[in-house]
């Protein structure tokens, strides 16, 4: 029996949610491309009456393809693993497999991005969306009552896993520019108030960040400011990169609403692209504002904030 097979069998037998997640999430980085063809594994594994053979075989295929630099084969094997785990997850008792499903969702998204690298379309990422949508449905529709304080186990609700998966889907929808699909996530989550019940602050922060960005694109600036401010206020104090990511969208919303950040804040998070805009608004100097907008035009267009910043010219006239 291979080491990896032994490792997965022992983790499953232990019923330790995080041990299983660590094993299935342990996918090697995709190496530089080689000419070696990845292996195809046909393994058998049954634990406590559940057939894990497809999960094991696909996991071994994905690991082998990653180590040999074949991103497309790695994604295909990871997608097969994800499909098999979705099937097992739906019939499993409780929510002890939620962490494993989370690691699988993350790896499916990342391997899809790697497989699509250099391609003109996002075919693999679009395929990955379908797998994560299925995972979302299986967590959302669990009928067991959800208690965020309850430990993971064989009696808990699968809803404990829904917000993480929603955030993964948000990331994919924004990448694919299919923002209309975000509403299919937001409506059921907020109607059941699941965005307020997560036991992980990181998931809640990420959710509010994406919803704030969605509000911004829908011209709902008050809601955008509220959600992005929540994300910034509750972001871990040492997560500087995440705070910077939030501020890239919060600052334009605040500028439109006539609230100017300090130069010290912008310099602290290395957001120098906003300095001439803020100075132009503070002085009522439209030329200075326009010069800054032109200078960083490409950057703002890539972020999707250029048209919003153009509207800020009206603040100069006040």
Features:
mainly alpha, single chain, elongated, 318 residues
Give the N-terminus to C-terminus distance in angstroms.
74 Å
**Major sheet size, sense and barrel closure:** 2 strands, antiparallel
Tally the beta strands: 2
Structural class: mainly alpha
Tell me the overall shape: elongated
Rg (C-alpha, Å) = 23 Å
Order of helices and strands: HHEEHHHHHHHHHHHHHHH
Mean pLDDT: 94
Q: How much of the sequence is in beta strands?
A: under 5%
Tally of separate helices: 17
Estimated helix fraction:
55-70%
Q: Please mark out the parts with pLDDT under 50 across 5 or more consecutive residues, or reply none.
A: none
Main-sheet strand order equals 1-2
Fold topology:
Elements: H1 3-14, H2 17-24, E1 46-47, E2 50-51, H3 53-67, H4 71-91, H5 98-116, H6 123-140, H7 162-176, H8 183-191, H9 201-217, H10 221-234, H11 240-256, H12 263-268, H13 275-283, H14 286-295, H15 297-303, H16 306-311, H17 313-316
Antiparallel strand pairs: 1-2
Helix pairs in contact: 1-2, 2-5, 3-4, 4-5, 4-6, 5-6, 5-7, 6-7, 7-9, 9-10, 9-11, 10-11, 13-14
Description of the molecule:
The protein is mainly α and 318 residues long. It is 65% helix and 1% strand. It has 17 helices and 2 strands. It has helices at 3-14, 17-24, 53-67, 71-91, 98-116, 123-140, 162-176, 183-191, 201-217, 221-234, 240-256, 263-268, 275-283, 286-295, 297-303, 306-311, 313-316; strands at 46-47, 50-51. It has a two-stranded antiparallel sheet. The radius of gyration is 23 Å and the shape is elongated.
């Amino acid at each position: 029996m291979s080491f990896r097979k032994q490792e997965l069998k022992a983790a499953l037998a232990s019923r330790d949610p995080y041990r299983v997640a660590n094993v299935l999430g342990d996918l090697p980085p995709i190496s530089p491309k080689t000419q070696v063809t990845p292996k195809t594994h046909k393994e058998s594994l049954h634990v406590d009456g559940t057939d894990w053979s497809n999960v094991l075989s696909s996991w071994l295929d994905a690991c082998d393809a990653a180590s040999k630099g074949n991103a497309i084969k790695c994604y295909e094997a990871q997608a097969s693993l994800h499909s098999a785990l979705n099937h097992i997850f739906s019939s499993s008792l409780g929510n002890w497999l939620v962490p494993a499903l989370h690691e699988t969702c993350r790896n499916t998204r990342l391997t899809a991005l790697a497989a699509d690298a250099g391609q003109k379309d996002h075919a693999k990422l679009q395929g990955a969306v379908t797998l994560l949508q299925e995972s979302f449905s299986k967590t959302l529709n669990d009928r067991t009552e959800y208690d965020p304080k309850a430990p993971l186990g064989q009696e808990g609700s699968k809803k404990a896993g829904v917000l993480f998966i929603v955030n993964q889907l948000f990331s994919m929808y924004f990448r694919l520019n299919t923002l209309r699909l975000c509403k299919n996530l937001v409506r059921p989550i907020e109607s059941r108030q699941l965005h307020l019940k997560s036991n992980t602050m990181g998931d809640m922060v990420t959710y509010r960040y994406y919803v704030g960005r969605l509000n911004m694109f829908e011209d709902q600036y008050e809601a955008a400011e509220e959600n992005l401010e929540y994300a910034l206020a509750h972001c871990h104090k040492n997560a500087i990169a995440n705070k910077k990511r939030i501020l890239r969208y919060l600052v334009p919303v605040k500028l439109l609403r006539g609230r100017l950040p300090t130069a010290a804040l912008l310099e602290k998070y290395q957001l120098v692209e906003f300095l001439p805009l803020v100075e132009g608004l503070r002085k009522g100097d439209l030329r200075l504002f326009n010069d800054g907008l032109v200078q960083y035009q490409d950057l703002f267009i890539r972020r999707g904030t250029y048209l919003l910043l153009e509207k800020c010219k009206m603040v100069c006239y006040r």
